[in-house]
Amino acid sequence: MTAPTRNNEAPEAKAWRWSAVEGSAPLSRHVFQKWLARVEATQHEENGSLLFSELFSNAMRYPAPDGLVPTRWFRLEGFIRVEVDDASSKDIVITDHGFESESGRGLILVHLLADEWGVIHRRFNDGNGNYLNGKTVWFELHD
Fold first, then answer.
1. Beta bridge mates, 137
2. 3-class DSSP state for residue 58?
3. pLDDT tens across 111-142, in order?
4. DSSP state of 77
5. Which one, out of 35, 62, 69, 70, has a CA that is 20 to 30 A from the CA of 134?
6. Buried b (16+ CB within 10 A) or exposed e, 65-97
7. 127 contact partners, CB below 8 Å, separation of at least 6
8. pLDDT: is 39 or 102 the higher one?
9. Could you report how far apart the first and last alpha carbons of the chain are, in Å?
């Protein structure tokens, strides 16, 4: 597993592939919080858990061709980085869905609360030799 590093630090990293089924979201959030404690990054528990949950919920709508949602968490010197893959080729656009809307605010929260965030466009192998467009959405929270 490769992780973004600064100054050649060795990251504390964890990769999970979650089934896109009911119950995965609360379980993934719980495991993420345990990981934060293990890597001594509990100062990021509130915002990190919220932002991870937002990205994970979006990805659950567009799992990889194998029905899984890949996630990666990195603890580097001075920050954490969280990555969530989805198999949607749609570009991310932050829009105001209106006061009454019950969805559409997750990326606004990511934009407001993350120290850095972005999107990496990628391709998924569907297991039959075909490739599908998708993306990795990531955020960083600095210590």
1. 84, 119
2. helix
3. 999 999 999 998 888 778 888 899 999 999 99
4. T
5. 35
6. eeebbbbbbbbbeebbbbbbbbbbeeeeeeeee
7. 65, 66
8. 39
9. 23
In whole angstroms, give the CA distance from residue 41 to residue 45: 7
Among 93, 99, 81, 67, which residue's Cα sits nearest to residue 6? 81
Listed as own residue / partner, the contacts of 43-49 with beta carbons closer than 8 Å and 24 or more positions apart are 43/143, 44/80, 44/141, 47/113, 47/114, 47/141, 48/80, 48/82, 48/141
Please give the model's pTM, rounded to 2 decimal places.
0.85
Three-state SS string over 102-119 comes to CCCCHHHHHHHHCCEEEE
Q: Which residue has the tokens 């605010």?
A: 105
Q: Please say whether the dihedral angle defined by the alpha carbons of residues 12, 51, 140 and 94, taken in this order, is positive or negative.
A: positive
Structure-block tokens of residue 79: 């920050």
Show the tokens assigned to 135. Answer: 């993306």
Tell me what pLDDT residue 5 has.
45
Burial degree of 13 (CB within 10 A; 0-12, 13-18, 19+): middle
Other CB atoms within 10 A of residue 139 CB: 24
